[in-house]
């Protein structure tokens, strides 16, 4: 299992992927986000599913890009079309033998970037069959892998108008919620950002100790917010009378 998250806001794009690899009782780490292209004409690809399928699909995509003799795809739609063509080729070659071995052809991918002829950044979620959907302003994120645990905070707090600094925090908290509840998701994490106005990419990776302050702050303040939340009607029926909060005494004149 894995957790990969792509976010699109007015400022640009954010990608986050965990680095944990599980195989039976064995744990290891590997990068699950790949930057493709060169210079300003780059895009990222994040994957979940069988690593052998991922590696072969990316190898075919790199071969296709090399045939272009240094020229990038003109648009992200062209890049997505090339990736899905490579994915379908791998499926035609390997799906039958994988399924005969009780392995699922289950590669999902998130692809995002802005190429020379694109008016703005674009991001797509690609399914194992090669079909895809595009992120939109109503739901400005896409996730693959163990998606259930990190979804609530994104649905509640993230909008297309969220600034990049806040969106990065929400991306981390979404991962942290997933890591906390799923043994198959964990550090290290890789993060990339694309600033639309300057058309610039940034990339970094973080381990468990690098984000100790943020993790401890969130745990501490989340507990404190729960304490400060207004009491609900359950107090009258479910809390013993001697444990209920005392009402302030009325002042007498």
From TrEMBL:
Protein's name in the database: Peptidase
A GO term from the CC aspect: proteasome core complex
Biological process (GO), any one: proteolysis involved in protein catabolic process
Domain of life: Bacteria
InterPro entries: Ntn_hydrolases_N, Proteasome_sua/b, UCP009120_prtse
SUPFAM superfamilies (alphabetical): N-terminal nucleophile aminohydrolases (Ntn hydrolases)
Pfam family, one: Proteasome
């Amino acid at each position: 299992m894995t957790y990969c998250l792509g976010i699109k806001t007015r400022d640009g794009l954010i990608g986050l992927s965990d680095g944990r690899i599980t195989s039976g009782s064995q744990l290891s780490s590997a990068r699950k986000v790949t930057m493709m292209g060169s210079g300003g004409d780059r895009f990222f690809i994040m994957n979940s599913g069988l690593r052998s399928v991922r590696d072969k699909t990316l190898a075919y995509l790199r071969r296709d890009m090399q045939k272009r003799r240094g020229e990038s795809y003109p648009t992200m739609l062209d890049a997505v079309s090339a990736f899905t063509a490579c994915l379908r080729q791998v499926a035609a070659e390997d799906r039958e033998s994988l399924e005969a071995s009780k392995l699922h052809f289950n590669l999902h991918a998130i692809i995002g970037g802005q190429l020379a002829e694109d008016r703005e950044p674009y991001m797509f979620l690609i399914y194992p069959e090669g079909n895809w959907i595009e992120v939109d302003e109503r739901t400005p994120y896409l996730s693959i892998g163990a998606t259930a645990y990190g979804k609530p905070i994104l649905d509640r707090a993230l909008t297309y108008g969220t600034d990049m600094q806040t969106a990065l925090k929400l991306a981390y908290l979404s991962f942290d919620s997933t890591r906390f509840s799923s043994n198959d998701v964990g550090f290290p994490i890789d993060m990339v950002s694309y600033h639309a106005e300057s058309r610039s990419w940034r990339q970094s990776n973080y381990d468990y100790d690098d984000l100790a302050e943020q993790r401890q702050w969130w745990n501490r303040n989340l507990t404190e917010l729960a304490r400060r939340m207004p009491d609900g009607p359950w107090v009258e029926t479910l809390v013993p009378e001697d444990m209920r909060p005392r009402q302030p005494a009325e002042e007498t004149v």
